[in-house]
Predict the 3D structure of the following.
Amino acid sequence: MTEDTSSFEATLTCAQTLDAADTLAHMRASFHIPKHSDGKDEIYLCGNSLGLQPQRSAEYVQRELNQWQKLGVKGHFSGDYPWMPYHEFLAEPMAELVGAKSSEVVVMNSLTVNLHLMMVSFYQPRLLKQCILIEQHAFPSDHYAAESQLIFHGFDPKEGLMLMRPRSHEATIRTEDILLRIDQHADTLALVLLPGVQYYTGEVLDMKAIVSKAHEYEIKVGLDLAHAVGNIPLELHDWGVDFAVWCSYKYLNSGPGSVAGCFVHERYHDDEMLKRFAGWWGHDKTTRFQMGDEFSPIKSAEGWQLSNPPILSLAAIRGSMDTFREAGGIQPLREKSIRLTGFLRFLLETRLSEQVDILTPSDTEAQGCQLSLEVNSEKRTGKEVFDWLEEQGVTCDWREPNVIRIAPVPLYNTFEDVYRFVDILEAAL
Ligand SMILES: *Cc1c(COP(=O)(O)O)cnc(C)c1O
């Protein structure tokens, strides 16, 4: 399905009409919008890299600093949001965003750390069944993590890492090709590790189809949802995903380097055969402080925790979760996102089709907020265009070798932002 563009016109008036009709337009006021040097709001189209700060986050963080000042160690047990169970306040709203039960979600560590912890449990290679399928040009951290796990288990990554690439002359990977690859290599595959949304092209993969195919052969599926969470609706529990990891600083607006999320399907919560790297915060809460030597894991995703978490960072995540709830959750945001990104595509196709190639698939099911653009101009190289955009007050991002990523975010971007961006891009070309 492609977006219905019949109500779109390539005019500022149309952009303003779309903003006036936008039932989520008020959400922009719940964020701090960075200012350009001319004093006006930046055209911030970079929420896929670092989401903007919700207005309430500073208050939530300050509140925990105050608790620490006034209460010291007693802050673990006092007030409306005591630190001891603080991460538990985040499980439910986070689970809503990823389509999981609260018990399947825990907020801990950072994305790559969680990826390793999950692979310790879910990548159990055997001789002749050791391969990990990832995409060619996966986010480097995912590539390094998978490769180092192979080495850790004594395998040669050249043989063990199976790379999924698009067909020649195509920018994105076809789901049918992934399914076929799984069919063909079922005997040797131990784990499929793929993104929900590919960071470079913005392509949304058909996660449900991939999980169900891999499970025909008892191959585990792990998802990296760095670019998917807070962007598109997810159904991790119903799809039967084995594990998933995501960061909270992109579409989740929880601040640079903030604590990450992790999903473990409930069918594993009581599985004593699973190996894991353990820490005291994963130990049964009722006996944790007896400080015994025998590890008894919590029977939920929390059983994978290692350490007591950084509360100031969790407070910022709580600010973000409340902001998502204020907007009514991911469904209405996704509806606006399809319109907003659809308007961006419409403007690019009507005004700049000669100079701009859009790598992201046009099927609405296969795209989220982000469009990845390759520009062809006699006047400027892609990188020069990007630098020029920055000078004009557009914040977006550049990915080597040749892509400008543009991500209008339904929580705080406007149709007018999108319109003005295309105007400035046209001037650059
Ligand atoms: C952003 C991103 C990461 C970042 O990893 P950190 O551990 O949070 O630094 C990893 N993988 C993907 C696919 C990403 O988009």
